[in-house]
Amino acid sequence: MEAHLFVVVDQLHRGASLITDPNERVDLARLSLLAGQKSKVMSSFSSALAFLKAGMNLLSDDDWQCHRALCLDLYTLRAEMEYIMGDFKTMKRHLDQVFLKAKTVQEQLPGYSTLVQAMIAEGSANDAISTGIQVLGLLGEEFPSDLSNSSAREELLLTQKLLSMKTEDELLSLLAMENSEKLNAMKFLNVIANVTAAERRELLELLVCRMIRLSLSYGLCNESAVAFSIYGTLINCHFGDYEGGLQFGKLALAISQKLRATDIICRVHCIVYGFLSNWIQPMQSSLLSLKEAVDIGLAAGDTECAMMSAHLYTGTALYSGIPLGTLYGEMKLYAKQMMEYGQQYTWTYNKPLRQVALNLLGRSADPTKLVGEEMDEDNLLENAEVVGNQALVVSIIYFYKMWLLFLFGEYELAGQMAEKCESESIEEHMVHRFGIVCNHAFYRGLIALVLSRDQDTTKYATIIEKAMEQMKAWASLTAWNCQHKVELLTAECEYYAGNFNDAAIAYDHAAELAAKHRFVHEEALSLERAGIFYLETGNQPVASDYFSRAHDCYMKWGACSKAMHLKKKFL
């Protein structure tokens, strides 16, 4: 029977209108639920939804009295499938029935999990957090309403002390969690942790510390892997322990493999390869894992994390110098999936990336403005509050505008945009995102160096010093990702100081390292800046050679508008 379940259920439903015996209708509804559950396991979510719809159509209101568990399972699973398929309106209608008919928190919990994930997808982060905290309270996991950064840090330090008492092998050898109440709490803590990362970082710290303590006290479960990976990001930003952070990420990967935790592998990969590995390992090395996370997440029904992995992939690929034509094709595919699965927040947050790619490809009227097929910067800035996490959206728009303005030689405007990034506290909002934090410091330093040649030098001295200090510190951790940036900043500093021989050497080192480490866009930038150096110091023939090489690199990257800009201005 089980081998032919789908065929049998389908055939029985063809004759369902002829069933007159109420017990037979209920039996077929049970088979429909079983078929829906098996379809979900097989990642066939549309088929699961079809079976669940058919099963529900066989039931009447009276069945809630006689067969409440069956009705509850059908409605709950159908709502989950509707969330996965992006049909939030119908999902909410069915969840209303679940919450109305359920008698215990345990019966309501799967429904609340689906509801909170839908709230996150729609950009209603505060509602998601509020609902989540209420449910956690019902599960016996209370959190104070008056959180502060100091209390969160204290909790983090206590957790750090507990973890220091165990080796990695001891943590990996913890027994499996069996307490059903704590398992339910861990599942819901995991759901809420994702949204608090952007909205309420002090709450995230408490949630993750609670998950780790529950794991230490009651044993490991799938969600323990997520907790350890997020903990890695916390010790990154609070203690600057990037190597330790990545070690906890690797522990999380090992736990997920040990437990064969297919439902959270996407989330763990997303955190490890989107937020941890790039501080230590070559940026390009994370790209395949992020793409795999998308497929794993979609197969597991974790559309929220799958689409966040897609967003992280496109950003990391852009900063890695991946050819823009190929990358934009992937961006369009992921954007389509984001809309299909109702991940409105991630789709909107990804817009600036897509428009930057279009601008560089030459598919916009003005390459320095985020206006075109994908977005209108003024419109998005005006509606940032509606999108959710206003400060994050605004700061990311300013960051990309700063980058484009510098790239196209609009240094004064780039400087203004860099100041806006600072006023929006971009490094605080994007503290876990190596690509953004690193590039912000890098371009902020370059802009200051260019502007300091014609303006009051004291205004920019601190900015230049900070940029160089940050870049050298990061290069000591990941020379692959940062050493060429250090060399280019050094070249500009030497040029400004009048040390032309040292500047020339540093420009060449920057270009050579960028090429060696496959950052073609920054190889192009280093060659262009070298060309400007030679031009301004009176060596036109050498300058032309550097500009020609820079043009070729920009074309190799696919940045046709920038290549055209360089050719028109210098060649």
Account of the 3D structure:
The chain is mainly alpha-helical. Among the domains are: 102 residues, no CATH class; 94 residues, Serine Threonine Protein Phosphatase 5, Tetratricopeptide repeat, CATH 1.25.40.10. It is 78% helix and 0% strand. It has 32 helices and no strands. Helix 9 runs parallel beside helix 12. The longest helix is centred in the C-terminal third of the chain and has 21 residues. The chain is elongated.
So what's the overall shape? elongated
Low-confidence spans: pLDDT under 50, at least 5 residues?
Answer: none
Helical stretch tally: 32
- Gyration radius (Cα, Å) is 27 Å
What is the average per-residue confidence, as pLDDT, rounded to a whole number? 92
**SSE-based structural type:** mainly alpha
Distance between the termini: 75 Å
Assembly category: single chain
Biggest sheet, in brief? none
Beta-strand percentage range: under 5%
How much helical structure, as a percent, in the residues? over 70%
Count of individual beta strands? 0
